[in-house]
Amino acid sequence: MDPETHHSKLKKYYKTLFPIETLVSYYTCSNTAPLSHREFSFTRGDIYMRYKSFQDCASLKKSLLQIIPHKIDIGAIYNQDPSYKSSDLSPIEKEFCVDIDISDYDDIRTCCKGASLCHKCWPLMHSAIDILNFAFREWFAFESILWVFSGRRGIHGWVNDERVIRYNHQERSAVAEFIHLYASNQNNKSKIHLSKPHPMFDMDSPLFAIAEKWFIRIAHDLDWIHNQHICQFISDEEIRQMVSTLIEESQVSSVEMLWDAIKDLLLDQKKVKSGGRTLIHEIVYTFVYPRLDINVSKQTHHLLKSPFVVHPKTGLVCMAIPDDEVLRFDPDSAPSLDKLLDKDPEAMSIFERSVQTFEKHATRSSVARKE
């Protein structure tokens, strides 16, 4: 699509479909500061505009129709209007956010690379959501957890509980570091930190059960075990050879049964003197544990793409995923700009349900703050 046509379609979308009132309701549901204290960032082509602010829905819509940004990012709520850019400008509130891209799983994806994705590897995002939903609710008692499809290759999580949005940098960092295991710059084969006591390192824990369930399921489609892909992440050469031999000699076609045999081998202290239990965790978590862009979660002033923005490269809407669909969401179902403007019935239905989901989270949080 040529830039002029895309520009024209975006303007129509912002004018007729973009849910400004719902977005403003969510971004102001803390009731502690006016909309004018929330940072908005617009991107149009090579022009990047940070620290924009708006008094109300009308002024936001007016600016959208004037600038027609190709991307809208949301920042923190500040102690004053961020557009003033004063020396004492300081972020005071923001949702706790997570950002996960499927391209960060390229070392274990056997089907796609980069921004490409398919039905075989997208369940890695389902696994990330399932694991984080458990961790957020059971370990941190988070309640309002909204999951959003980025419009191209990943997912964003937004937590806007009253106490959570007030977390300072240290508190955000503590939560982020606690749930962050993956380290892409590690020199050893395993990319998982297991050096400290942690509730997820118990093989009897509910979280490990969730992770292992997804590991087995995705291993069926990506053939991690029978093609010995898991062996690449075993540092100990002797153990790696034992696992490789077991797989080569096995007559078992079932992924689940072969994985059970590998676990039995690793837990056999006569063959594996020590570390077998840890290695089981390392294998499972290396493949299916959420790979966060940790700075998005740690930094109060960090920006994140607003829901309902149209991704400039795919034309798909960055949509809020209904709570009861997060573990089966198909990115191919995301409505496109063209289908929405054509009033395609299926696309409109999905879009409207997405807006309702976003509105529900805004209303739920607002009511909780008043109680």
UniProtKB/TrEMBL annotation:
Keywords: DNA replication, DNA-directed RNA polymerase, Metal-binding, Nucleotidyltransferase, Primosome, Transcription, Transferase. InterPro entries: DNA_primase_S, DNA_primase_ssu_euk/arc. It comes from the Eukaryota. This is DNA primase. GO terms for biological process: DNA replication, synthesis of primer. Its EC number is 2.7.7.-. GO terms for molecular function: DNA-directed RNA polymerase activity; metal ion binding. Pfam families: DNA_primase_S. The keyword Magnesium does not apply. It comes from Percolomonas cosmopolitus. One of its GO terms (cellular component) is alpha DNA polymerase:primase complex. Belongs to the eukaryotic-type primase small subunit family.
